[in-house]
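Recap from last week: sequence in, structure out.
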Amino acid sequence: MDRATFACSTAFFHDYSSSSQGAFCLPGGHVDFIEKVESFTYSDFFRDYLIPNHPCIFSAKFTEDWGSRRSWVSWDGKPNFDYLLQKFGEAVVPVANCDVKEYNSNPKEQLPFKEYIKYWKEYIKNDYRSSRGCLYLKDWHLSRAFPEQDVYTTPVYFSSDWLNEYWDAVAVDDYRFVYMGPKGSWTPFHADVFRSYSWSANICGRKKWLLYPAGQEEYLKDCHGNLPFDVTAPSLQDRSVYPRYNQSQPPVEIVQEAGEIVFIPSGWHHQVYNLEDTISINHNWVNGCNVAIMWCFLQDELAAVQREINEWKDPMDDWHLQCQLIMKSCTGIDYKEFYNFLKVIAENRISVLENGLDDEASAKNTPKAAISTLGMLHAVFDLKRTVKVLTSLSANEDFKKLDLTSLSPPPEALLHHLKAAIDTALL
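Predicted structure tokens:
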């Protein structure tokens, strides 16, 4: 797709209303295909896909220099099992059974990587059948386990990544994954963690995606308010079980080829199939464009927990704290950690605005270097979006009922610092 370079200006980082996100219909299910690396800028992506929350596909040219595309793939386009075993044979990996439903997901187990590859090779030889079922290696934190490996480089379009910036800072987790699976492996219907964006790059193989714009999932719920496990199941046609299914739009369908990257917008539910033996790199990420959606998601999750244990509200002295603990066990974060998340993101940007980059930071692959690459106006945009969400969090009644004395700095002080940094930067 040929596009003129969109000049980065103050108007470009205009404080768009978050209410526009997800509120659109793709004409005929069309998804833009971005062909040329040299004519597609970060500004193009920000304007046309991040802010309006539209999906798109990047051509294989955007990944052709990745180490994994050279080394992990055999001459015939299939996974290079010998190379993978040589590099990662002793690793232990998470593996899901696609043939079994457990609650609303596939059950997982931990297997030695060499055992999984042995299974995969036998599965292929047996015409993609096995008494063990269809096993899918999912959510492997390979980058964290093998940081020295030349696997891939995150494209600049996805570099404003607050989730991984924060979780790297606290050294607890990350949201960078490798998926590997045989033809026929699949991921059930879901939306991504915290209603984040995701990007997924095929190292080899092909995937089929079924995408539903944010909000469409409401029409797919059953009479009890539950989402389907498999959005293609014939049972969805039963109006006594799924009374609003006939009001839903057909899904947007994407067939993703080897080397291509799919960008999944925030809050879009999707279901994914491997059409061939496939390996992919996947990131979940949040930034200033969708952090308000993450905050709305957390409020909805807490409200759901409160409804579930409402009968214990009066006899339980620490009911509000218990609700936070349950929410964190379900989602991975509570309100106080969300505050710390916003604080880390804000302080990194304030530091760059106030102090610039030292030579050591600019030479490394650090969050501050990424902030500098995207420019000072982007840092200001991030801070403005953080101010909006932090203001809402500080005024939230459930947040105010928590013991906030451990938060440093206090929310009011952080907000004051943020606003002062924005005003100074815009002088």
